[in-house]
Design brief:
Radius of gyration: 16 Å
Structural class: alpha+beta
Strand order of the largest sheet: 1-2-3-4-5-6-7-8
CATH architecture: Beta Barrel
Distance between the termini: 46 Å
Strand content: over 45%
Helix content: 10-25%
Length: 120
């Protein structure tokens, strides 16, 4: 009975995504960036303290900050601005090298987005 219990705990821990996998900087591949043609690159930096930085590179760079929550394959982004806007990302796949996700919104036609781990 104990072996079954420990096996179940081990399997559950493997199947659930780890918070540590999310920590770091993830950027889009500029060749794959096709959602808005003027975006050159988009990056998210997730920190251990629960904060994030989003950088959008156009002709100029836009930097947004906020807090995030990560659980049950969902990342909830709460932006630090006057509107306190929230975005929800549904994780499709996450590894040490990339994150594949969809934005959850009323528009269910959200494409898959892939961000690659930045080595810095």
């Amino acid at each position: 009975m104990r072996k079954i219990f420990f096996c179940l705990i081990f399997l559950f821990s493997i199947l659930s995504f780890s918070q540590n996998t999310l920590i770091g900087k993830f950027c889009s591949n500029s060749k794959e960036q096709n959602t808005i043609s003027t975006i050159q690159q988009s990056c998210f930096t997730f920190k251990e303290d629960g904060t994030f930085i989003e950088e959008i590179k156009l002709d100029v760079s836009i930097v947004l900050t906020g807090k995030y929550r990560f659980s049950n394959n969902i990342i909830e982004l709460i932006y630090n601005d006057e509107t306190n806007e929230t975005s929800i990302l549904k994780i499709i796949k996450i590894t040490n090298k990339k994150i594949v996700f969809r934005y959850l919104s009323k528009d269910k036609s959200s494409k898959r987005n892939t961000l690659y781990k930045s080595i810095q």
